[in-house]
Description:
Blueprint: E1 9-13, H1 23-37, E2 41-46, H2 49-57, E3 61-64, H3 81-102, E4 106-109, H4 112-124, E5 128-132, H5 137-140, H6 151-160, E6 165-168, H7 171-181, E7 189-191, H8 200-203, E8 212-217, H9 226-237, E9 243-248, H10 254-260, E10 267-271, H11 277-280, E11 285-288, H12 297-304, E12 309-312, E13 326-329, H13 334-345, H14 348-365, H15 368-380
Parallel strand pairs: 1-2, 1-4, 2-3, 4-5, 5-6, 6-7, 8-9, 8-11, 9-10, 11-12, 12-13
Amino acid sequence: xxxxxxxxxxxxxxxxFGYDFGGGEKMPVHLxxxxxxxxxxxxxxxxxxxxxxxxxxxxxxxxxGWWWSxxxxxxxxxxxxxxxxxxxxxxxxxxxxxxxxxxxxVVHAQSKDDFIAATLAARMVGARVLWSDHADLxxxxxxxxxxxxxxxxxxxxxxxxxxxxxxLTSQSDKKLIEDGYGxxxxxxxxxxYNGVFDRPxxxxxxLKNKHIIFAATSRLVTAKGIGELIQAFTLLSADRLDCKLWxxxxxxxxxxxxxxxxxxxxxxxxxFFQDPLEELAKADILVHPSYLEGFSISLVEGAMLGKPIxxxxxxxxxxxxxxxxxxxxxxxxxxxxxxxxxxxxxxxQLREDLARQSRIDFNKNYDFEEIVRKKYLPLYE
Length: 381
C-alpha cells in the first residue's frame, strides 16, 4: 500500500564547510519548505550552523548531523583511504540509528560522504534514496576507469547504483561527469535545473538610484572572481564616476579583497545577509565573475529579480545567461569584464531589455514551486 503523503517522512541531508552558504546550501531548505506545503514531513539534517539556522527560521524540523571537514582525499592522501572507510562505517551506523528512529520513506542525500553512508543506511531500513549533486560528482568521478586511482570516487559510484535517482543540475555537469565515468551515465541520472521561489514584490521594485549599482552575491574566495571584479570596477571607474559596486557576502579571503579595494570609495563590502535578495533587489545589474560553476543559484536569483546579468562563460552559466538576458565574458579576464560593465552602464535601453527577458526566462524555467511539483514530487512518489 502506498504511504499517504501526509505521513511521508523525507530526510534531506546537506553538509558543507561552515563558510559555505550559497545556492547549494539553501536549496535543501527551500525544497523542504515546499514539501511541507504538499503535506510531506521533511527533516533537514546538517552539520552547518548557517544551514540549520536558516532551516529553523523556516519552521522546519532540523537535526544536527555528523560531518568531517577532511574532504580532500586526492594525491598522497589516498594512502589514508582505510581511515576514510572507518569514518564511513561510523557515519553509516549513525545514520542507521537515525533512520530507525525517524522511519523515513525517502532519504535525499546532497553531499559526498552522505552519498555513501546515508545511502547504505537508508537501504538497510527500506527507504527510497535520491541524490542531488551540487557540482561534486564531476570531481569525484575522475579516473574511475584507472584501477589504482580514486578509491573514494569508486565507492561513491558503487553507492550511486543503489539510488533511485541522481539529480544533476546542468547539461555541463552531465558532460563533465560522463567524461570521468568513461561512458554514458545510467538511466537513474536525471537533470533538473535549480530554481528559486518567486518574490514579485522584490522583482517589481522600482529603482531610484543616483548611481548605477553593480552587485555581486558571493562567497569571498579567489575562485569566485572577486579579485577580477575589483580590477574591472577600478578600470570602469576611471571613465564612469557614477557607478558603485556592492559585494554582498563573506568568506575566508575577505580581508585580502578589502585591501585590494581600499582606494576605491565606490566599492562597498556589504557583508553577510540571511536574505541577500533584499539588497540585490536594490541594485541595477548582477555581476557573477566566478571561474567555475555547475548551475548557479545566484544567476537564477538575478533572473527572478529581473536583473540584467554579466557572468563568465563557464560551466552551466550559458544555460542560464544568453544574449537575451545578459552578457557572457571569459573567466579571469578583468578587461573583458570591465568592457561588459561599461556597456551596460552606458546603455539604459539595453539594461531594460535584458532585465525584461531575465524575468521572462525565470517564469518559464526556474520557478521553484513548479520545479518541485513537476519534477521532484514524482521522484519521491
